[in-house]
Amino acid sequence: MATTLKGQPLDRPTLDTLCRRRLFYTPSFEIYGGISGFFDYGPPGCALQANIIDIWRKHFVLEEDMLEVDCTILTPHDVLKTSGHVDKFADWMCKDPKTGEIFRADHLVEEVIEARLKGDKEARLGEKKGAEGGVQETAKDVEENTSKEEKKRKKKVKNIMAVKLPDELVKEYESVLAKIDNYDGDELGDLIKKYDIRNPATGGELNPPLAFNLMFQTSIGPTGGVAGYLRPETAQGQFLNFSKLYEYNNLRMPFASASIGKSFRNEISPRQGLLRVREFLMAEIEHFVDPEDKAHPRFSEVFNVKLSFLPKGVQQSGSTEVIEKTIGEAVKEGMVDNETLGYFLARIQLFLLRIGIDKNKIRFRQHMNNEMAHYASDCWDAELFNSYGWIECVGCADRSAYDLSVHSKVTGQELIVRETLAEPVKKDEWEVDIEKKIFGPKFKKDAKIVEEALLALNQAQREAAAKTLQTEGVLGVSLPDGRSVEVDVTTVNITLRSKIINVREFTPNVIEPSFGIGRILYTLIEHSFWFRPEDVNRGVLSFPPSVAPTKVLLVPLSSNAQFTPIVNALSAKIRKVGISNKIDASSASIGKRYSRNDELGTPFGITVDFQTVKDGSVTLRERDGTRQVRGSQEEVVEVLRKLVEGEIGWEGTGLKEFVGQAVDDE
Amino acid sequence: MATTLKGQPLDRPTLDTLCRRRLFYTPSFEIYGGISGFFDYGPPGCALQANIIDIWRKHFVLEEDMLEVDCTILTPHDVLKTSGHVDKFADWMCKDPKTGEIFRADHLVEEVIEARLKGDKEARLGEKKGAEGGVQETAKDVEENTSKEEKKRKKKVKNIMAVKLPDELVKEYESVLAKIDNYDGDELGDLIKKYDIRNPATGGELNPPLAFNLMFQTSIGPTGGVAGYLRPETAQGQFLNFSKLYEYNNLRMPFASASIGKSFRNEISPRQGLLRVREFLMAEIEHFVDPEDKAHPRFSEVFNVKLSFLPKGVQQSGSTEVIEKTIGEAVKEGMVDNETLGYFLARIQLFLLRIGIDKNKIRFRQHMNNEMAHYASDCWDAELFNSYGWIECVGCADRSAYDLSVHSKVTGQELIVRETLAEPVKKDEWEVDIEKKIFGPKFKKDAKIVEEALLALNQAQREAAAKTLQTEGVLGVSLPDGRSVEVDVTTVNITLRSKIINVREFTPNVIEPSFGIGRILYTLIEHSFWFRPEDVNRGVLSFPPSVAPTKVLLVPLSSNAQFTPIVNALSAKIRKVGISNKIDASSASIGKRYSRNDELGTPFGITVDFQTVKDGSVTLRERDGTRQVRGSQEEVVEVLRKLVEGEIGWEGTGLKEFVGQAVDDE
């Protein structure tokens, strides 16, 4: 169950209402009825996002001298065809042929099975009111979406009854849920048939799952001839610029590029608020590394960082029990593939902690083999726990040489690193020599593919083929189209030759940490939220000062005109030391203004009262414990600077504690 | 003619080559052949952009407590239908029916006429080599685009011959060029016919201009039922959130929202590098103000700021002579419509100067009446002069109540301000009373439109109608569909009544300063560029420290291992005071490394040499004059901080001048 910062049960609708009231975020185009999957950030959300990005940039880009680039969102078809997105960036959808409704297949299976398991649990508890309980839970569900589909979904969930299931089936269902991210379309279709999963609203049967490409398509230029997409990730722009970046980096390896920008997914039916949106901010790193040396020079700095791992073996067994160990051990014993990947996993956790994510709500889940792209050698998601469950917020994959290789192959441009060897190396290699004058006329129009098939043989195959040619005089060659032909010694020779190698050429491998900023931001809001026990309606967002949208609120005691110049001058003074502040000179009571402030997550408040007019002193208040100290404006500004920069904590202010409320002594 | 920072003739291809070599920007998807109108920013361009944005945010958002929002790029059809973009956001294109080529009509007319005028000038100068001169100019043209259209364009320009034109025609041509932005499709069609403008490559006749909508269209969701566009500006998201922002601002007026983000225009045939791209970063402010009081509380602060104005009257007369005066005078005499608009014009200039734009290359051009949207009450562009001519980089329009009114009308949502009046006001108003019981049966299905027509009468019309009803007993009412009906006193009464008004309701007007960041960035690069007289090949980008991508380069004298720990520690020290720095430990000579640095626009350099190993002192160098001083690392870091923050100039370092080169004394 999701809890607040203080371990209280977290009621999502309450928090959601707070966030919308304070304009952290709001559904886009709401006066037009809205479209699910789109949110705008208001002033505090926008500032929170900017601060998270600022820390991200310092933590990764500046700390490691990464090469930040800003590439276009619009991407032509050919690039995304090569990357595989045109063919494979899809979810499975099922259509109800009668109503025309469309369901995302895996989500539907998940929801229906979860509901059935819930019904089973209630039946087992012997609770008569099980069904009504389900309804209550549904009614409490956050009102995030008023679309037709959403209403139908709610109706559907209401239909679930408390029915006890056979023990065997419960086990099956649990195993399906543990592997729900790993089924392809056929498998989802089989599950839907096997478990008789139907349109929950109507009971109608569904068509088999079809792939739906998640990219938004458009057309570039006036002729309509150039198809383009909104990028689904920022990575491709970085890959396409590899050679330029490598040169910019003075041909030094390894190095990383980084990019922060919007990406897009045309989700089938987005729910889950900020967690599943059609337009989102990503921050991605592409760390280019020698495939034969994935050690990381700074790995020792993170060796002892402890992470919670959920490796693939554990998941395969149907369990979700995490294993705690240091990243050093995890790499040593091979659970995490290599040092560079491990280095980033640790750095990801350090970043998450730095912005205020709850350490106990982070786990690193390894992709299972069938979930991982075929070329990836290892992949881990940093999952954060919030009221929606464990949610992937950062991915970190070793993508091998895949991306650079495919783009290079299609474009004919080299995307490689040339490394001059310290000492030349002698190397024996089997080489294929073709007697073109005889070979060409013999194979005619097939000559090219036969030659390609021969050149595609690796060293071991060439050695075997040389032997065959030597002993038999002829060699059978299989062609890609299934035919096979024979070559003989008059046309082909395979010979072992010694070569001196001075330069080593290789396609770098890529380690890719990829951050969903919106998901992290939303989870941070949940992890920072709590309410004062004396007043459950008074929500507080305890952001660390570094990410808080506003660092300090200036509160004149009343609307008395004497306060105005003092407050304005103080605001300018605080801004001068680089600290964002806001003045709240509204007529609301001090308490109400501070409460508004709690909801905005502003860590400090300064009150200007009649004592200030007399002696210049002001009160400084901290949000979490509502404790106050008093000092001169100069003292308070300096203390504030130290607090915001993390040099001191509240205990270190050195100022006199101030008890009681400032009083308007007019 | 465009000039460098030092008044040298600016050769654009040289600068462009520098920018690409140093990866300020690079054509997107270049390994796939590229698509015109798309550029990626490499590390220095990305940092330059971030610094410009950072200053923009401080100069506008923080300084005036604006409400920054981050709204979605994808925008549904209905929103942009209301805003007018679906119907009117278009350029005129002409198709050559034989070749299928598409030309942007106004650009074609402009180019052909400019070429003819050039031919005329050459003929008049009696220069025999006129035609070849044209070719040379073309060959020098920046190689920004290798598309087919571009090649054809070049071919076309070559065809222009030195032909003397009648004096009268030259005048006509000049007048057409002065008004080229103001022609609609029919007028462009007339010009094309009148001046016999054809496909310059083939001489083929063109079809009449057709409107081409410049928005990229896509489809949202799996059903294909929801049409959407990539936003052409960030403004609409701000308008749609008006009521939420007004409430967030505690119902105080005036206030401004602001937004920084990508926008898109599907340009017909983009050339001109970063100036005309299909995807670009905008920064926009929507300042909401009382239509009856457009005074600005801080106008006095900018009253004496001098601007160069090009008002519409001057343009209409065919001249481009600017008028210099203070914004205070310009508003006083009514040249600029109101104080708020004037305040922003001055603030825009102050911003441009702050980032390093050349004061002599800024002018404010007023929109002419036929160029301005019908609802706008005044509009000025800040135009910057660069090698492409005078280019609109910031627009600043008073958009009246247009946007809020149209969205309110379509959605039925109120987008208004309610102001409690200090004293209630008595107001006499003519009210229309309808006797529904008789009215309804009488007009049947027309009842509603007749009623609407009556209620649409303004106060003066109502007074007249009341008189007619009183004297004639009947009143003719014109319906929107052209019919007219009669009402009489049994169904309608129009009466003057006194009302007490406590609350004033109004739709705010909007003043909209809108910045094209890419255009400003490119122009800033041109304005910062120069070359050392002793070496024309050694380009320098003299960015002010605040916008420079990197503030200081750390240069160890050689690759001697003794320097490494010193340089690394110094880098960390400098980073700690918040100053971005890079280490260049490559094996290139000091001179070569500093020259690379000049091209990247890094204002300062620190050399670590053998003297440093002995006594810790380092050399600090400034880019523009290559002067050097020497001091302890502590002294130099402190001086550096003051230089970067603008507290001191180079004369104020107080450190000992250092003459001659650091020498490796090993």
UniProtKB/TrEMBL annotation, chains A, B:
<dbReference type="InterPro" id="IPR006195">
    <property type="entry name" value="aa-tRNA-synth_II"/>
</dbReference>
<protein>
    <recommendedName>
        <fullName>glycine--tRNA ligase</fullName>
        <ecNumber>6.1.1.14</ecNumber>
    </recommendedName>
</protein>
<dbReference type="InterPro" id="IPR036621">
    <property type="entry name" value="Anticodon-bd_dom_sf"/>
</dbReference>
<keyword id="KW-0808">Transferase</keyword>
<feature type="compositionally biased region" description="Basic and acidic residues">
    <location>
        <begin position="138"/>
        <end position="150"/>
    </location>
</feature>
<dbReference type="Pfam" id="PF03129">
    <property type="entry name" value="HGTP_anticodon"/>
</dbReference>
<dbReference type="GO" id="GO:0070150">
    <property type="term" value="P:mitochondrial glycyl-tRNA aminoacylation"/>
</dbReference>
<keyword id="KW-0067">ATP-binding</keyword>
<dbReference type="InterPro" id="IPR002314">
    <property type="entry name" value="aa-tRNA-synt_IIb"/>
</dbReference>
<dbReference type="InterPro" id="IPR033731">
    <property type="entry name" value="GlyRS-like_core"/>
</dbReference>
<keyword id="KW-0963">Cytoplasm</keyword>
<comment type="subunit">
    <text>Homodimer.</text>
</comment>
<feature type="region of interest" description="Disordered">
    <location>
        <begin position="125"/>
        <end position="151"/>
    </location>
</feature>
<dbReference type="InterPro" id="IPR027031">
    <property type="entry name" value="Gly-tRNA_synthase/POLG2"/>
</dbReference>
<keyword id="KW-0648">Protein biosynthesis</keyword>
<dbReference type="InterPro" id="IPR002315">
    <property type="entry name" value="tRNA-synt_gly"/>
</dbReference>
<dbReference type="GO" id="GO:0016740">
    <property type="term" value="F:transferase activity"/>
</dbReference>
<dbReference type="Pfam" id="PF00587">
    <property type="entry name" value="tRNA-synt_2b"/>
</dbReference>
<dbReference type="InterPro" id="IPR045864">
    <property type="entry name" value="aa-tRNA-synth_II/BPL/LPL"/>
</dbReference>
<dbReference type="GO" id="GO:0004820">
    <property type="term" value="F:glycine-tRNA ligase activity"/>
</dbReference>
<dbReference type="GO" id="GO:0005524">
    <property type="term" value="F:ATP binding"/>
</dbReference>
<keyword id="KW-0547">Nucleotide-binding</keyword>
<keyword id="KW-0030">Aminoacyl-tRNA synthetase</keyword>
<dbReference type="InterPro" id="IPR004154">
    <property type="entry name" value="Anticodon-bd"/>
</dbReference>
<dbReference type="GO" id="GO:0005739">
    <property type="term" value="C:mitochondrion"/>
</dbReference>
<feature type="domain" description="Aminoacyl-transfer RNA synthetases class-II family profile">
    <location>
        <begin position="215"/>
        <end position="533"/>
    </location>
</feature>
<comment type="similarity">
    <text>Belongs to the class-II aminoacyl-tRNA synthetase family.</text>
</comment>
<keyword id="KW-0436">Ligase</keyword>
